[in-house]
């Protein structure tokens, strides 16, 4: 991975930690809410100023209402909506101002290509980057997680056996360089597509995240796992592969890749690609699964109306 610069400094000269919360999707919203509680704590707890960006979702209004309710139950009162529908709208001053004032930014699930088309490379993107570097926590779930890296998976074949040239990368927000992020990892059997992309770009680490699970990353280096599932790190820097010559859709040869399976309590150094600490899983973490982000949002929205 590319060496990471030292933490930013605030105007007062104090060091500022940059924090990402990369969520694998379908996080618990109604029971113990472990992952989303962590986001609220990182954003400032009761004093948090949270911006929700549901642009990826086909149910953007419902998605905002769901997270507004979840964060409100954590005693957060300052929750704003930023939802540009065009690249031109992503330059509106009120949206930029909301992000500039935020202590926490949350990108919902949906279609990551929408985020690439409507936000990446816009003033909203620039405002998110500024917020991240001044110390606001930036979180994304599912599609909102994928877009946090420099290169995001925009399409790809699921399964266990990797095949050549069946997955595609697009530009992301670039907050986590040197990494390709994938979500719903174990639930949707996405090992094949992540390994195929890492085999073709072995200078990058692959990070796959289960549902109701998050990778908390500080200063692009230190990763801690939170939630009911696991985070998987695929390191192919010393592997041998025929990715440069295999024909399209052919089985891909990869030998010597290292895979780390990291449950709750694991601490991992992304720069060194090494486990640094591990404590046993928190006994109160509840297992949550959901087939799709749309159903997850719809079900949560329906529950709010009961």
Largest sheet: 9 strands, mixed
Strand order in the sheet with the most strands: 5-4-6-7-3-12-13-18-19
Oligomer state equals: single chain
Radius of gyration: 18 Å
Strand fraction equals: 25-35%
Q: What is the name of the CATH class?
A: Alpha Beta
What's the tally of helices? 8
Order of helices and strands: EEEHEHEHEHHEHEEEHEEEEEEEEEH
Describe the structure in your own words.
- The chain is an alpha/beta fold and 306 residues long.
- The protein has a single domain (17-305), classed as Class I glutamine amidotransferase (GATase) domain (Rossmann fold, 3-Layer(aba) Sandwich).
- The protein is 25% helix and 27% strand.
- It is built from eight helices and 19 strands.
- A nine-stranded mixed beta sheet has the order 5-4-6-7-3-12-13-18-19, sandwiched between helices. It has a four-stranded mixed beta sheet with strand order 10-11-14-17.
- β12 and β13 form a beta hairpin.
- α2 packs across α8 (293-305) and α3 runs parallel beside α5.
- The longest helix is centred in the first third of the chain and has 14 residues, at 60-73.
- It is globular, with a radius of gyration of 18 Å.
- The protein starts with 7 loop residues before the first strand and ends with a helix.
- The model is unreliable at 1-7 (pLDDT under 50).
- Keywords: Carboxypeptidase, Hydrolase, Protease, Serine protease.
- Exopeptidase that catalyzes the hydrolytic cleavage of multi-L-arginyl-poly-L-aspartic acid (cyanophycin; a water-insoluble reserve polymer) into aspartate-arginine dipeptides.
């Amino acid at each position: 991975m590319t060496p990471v610069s030292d933490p930013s400094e605030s105007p007062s000269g104090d060091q500022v930690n940059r924090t990402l919360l990369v969520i694998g999707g379908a996080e618990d919203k109604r029971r113990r809410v472990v992952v989303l509680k962590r986001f609220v704590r990182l954003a400032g707890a009761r004093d948090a100023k949270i911006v929700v960006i549901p642009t990826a979702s086909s149910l953007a209004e419902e998605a905002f209402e769901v997270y507004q309710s979840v964060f409100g139950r954590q005693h957060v009162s300052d929750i704003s909506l930023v939802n540009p529908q065009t690249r031109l709208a992503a330059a509106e001053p009120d949206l930029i101002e909301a992000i500039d004032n935020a202590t926490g930014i949350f990108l919902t699930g949906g279609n990551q290509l929408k985020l690439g088309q409507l936000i990446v490379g816009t003033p909203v993107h620039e405002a998110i980057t500024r917020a991240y570097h001044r110390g606001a926590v930036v979180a994304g779930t599912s599609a909102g997680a994928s877009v946090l890296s420099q290169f995001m998976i925009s399409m790809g074949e699921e399964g266990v056996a990797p095949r050549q040239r069946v997955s595609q990368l697009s530009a992301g927000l670039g907050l986590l360089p040197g990494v390709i992020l994938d979500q719903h990892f174990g639930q949707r059997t996405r090992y094949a597509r992540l390994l195929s992309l890492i085999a073709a770009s072995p200078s990058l680490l692959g990070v796959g995240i289960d549902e109701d699970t998050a990778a908390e990353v500080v200063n692009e280096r230190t990763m801690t796992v939170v939630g009911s599932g696991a985070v998987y790190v695929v390191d192919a820097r010393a592997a041998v592969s025929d990715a440069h010559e295999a024909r399209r859709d052919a089985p891909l040869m990869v030998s010597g890749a290292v895979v780390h399976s990291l449950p709750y309590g694991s601490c991992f150094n992304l720069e060194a690609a090494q486990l640094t600490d591990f404590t046993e899983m928190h006994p109160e973490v509840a297992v949550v699964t959901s087939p799709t982000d749309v159903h997850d949002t719809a079900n949560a929205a329906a529950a709010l109306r009961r």
